[in-house]
Design goal:
mainly alpha; 3 helices; 75% helix
Length: 68
């Protein structure tokens, strides 16, 4: 059976440049997730402003299922 190491084992041989690149990728991922949440919130607000509760509920349900 293959032995899985710890995170310290995986990152022990990284150079400072590699660590900086990993940090930059993580920051990009966080920004993309934040932007996605903001876009979903904006879609919900547009639906709520139009007083279309049924439409909002369909959108909300679809997004919860990962279709939005």
């Amino acid at each position: 059976m293959m032995e899985l190491g710890t995170m310290a084992d995986l990152t022990a041989n990284l150079t400072p440049e590699q660590r900086a690149r990993i940090d930059a990728i993580k920051a990009e991922m966080v920004a993309a997730e934040r932007q996605d949440r903001a876009a979903r919130r904006a879609r919900h607000m547009r639906a709520a402003r139009s007083w279309d509760y049924e439409g909002w509920q369909r959108l909300h349900d679809a997004e919860k299922r990962g279709e939005g």
